[in-house]
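In the current project phase, our protein records have gained a structure token line. A sample record follows, to show the layout:
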Amino acid sequence: MFFLISYGLLNYATYYEARSESPSFRPRFRWYHKNVSLIGGVACLGAMMTIDVTAGTISTVVLFAIYQYLKRTSGPARWADSRRAYHLQQVREHLLAADADPDHPRSWRPHVLLFSDDSKHRKRLFDFASWVQGQSGFTTAVQILEGQGAKILKEKKATEDDLRKDIQEHGIAAFPLVVAAPDLMMGAYSLIQAFGVGPLKANTILLNWVEQTPSEDLEERENRFGRNLRIAYSLGRNIVILCAKHTAWETLKTVPRENRRIDVWWWGDATSRLMLLFAYMMTRSKEWEDAKIRLPAVCMAPESDGTVQEIRDVLDDIQIDAEPEVVIQPSAADAATDSRKMALKNGKAAEKASDKADKKLRKVEEAASSKTDPEELKELKAEADAAEKQAHEAARKAAKAAAKAEDAAKKAEASGAPLPDTQKNSA
């Protein structure tokens, strides 16, 4: 039995190496063929069972147990494992075969580029990516470093190790990728275009909402965020933005799985269909397998039977279980009123932030005139600067809300909708 097992394993090992097309496997025997090795391995197994079925079965089980023990306890292997070479060969063959077949929407899978520079909020992106890929897509976690030279290359290696560690700690199926580029925009532009091999290209960009990105000047943050979105859009990629505040995310975790619901706002366009597909992919994950999908469809009039039937026909065609529901769109006057209320709320917040900044500034002036300790004065100046920056951001938000309210009021007037007196006076 020992001889048959040894000879059979030797034959199977040579067949496995040859089947993987590993460049490191170079047999010297001129007439070697992998099928002969396979036949030899099968023949040894058959001889074992012919001689004694019980002894052959026990020997095979013991051999498998030894293999599992060594696999879990042995240190770094002296010889390379052939499995990696075999998997890479399978990838090569399957990619070539997929590239030869014509592309079809039904074979679409999410190939996600997950952009994140903030380890604190990366966990939520990892969770969301694992949901929307639905056990059939690929996710690559990307971080772009700005800079050049040997120093940035050293930082690149350390950052990639940290990214790989985060992926392993969170236990998700993803690949780490760190790119060094002289400019962030140029790095993102080149990466999105060139990422992938053959038919396996990135088709979806996933990133956090602007307020979840690392802290910096809000205006600069928004400008950079907008530029990155324009790059992804111009290159024809789907864009998914995760807006998950801490309290809302923690509340979601407490909801029982059977009570969860996924809402997909339906407008009947390609974006709606993509969101519906992502919702279905989420239900293939363990966390959302019991969730229900609801399709709120915006309609201008209460007569919505036709809209619901159209959605049901679409759902029957694509074979996704979801419940359509019509939501009546607010009138122009209601939208103008809501915009006005938001503008007033933001205006009050801006006034409050401005008052706070003025108080901080007065404290600094009083401390400077009274010869306060330099360290304490430095802290007061830092607090005043921070308050001034918050006041500036609050004023900018208030100005945006006021402009939006004014636009809503003009649209309401153009539609002939009656406006409340307060709205008319404010327009």
Observations:
- Residues 85 and 416 are 71 Å apart (CA to CA).
- DSSP finds 14 helices and ten strands in the chain.
- The mean pLDDT is 82.
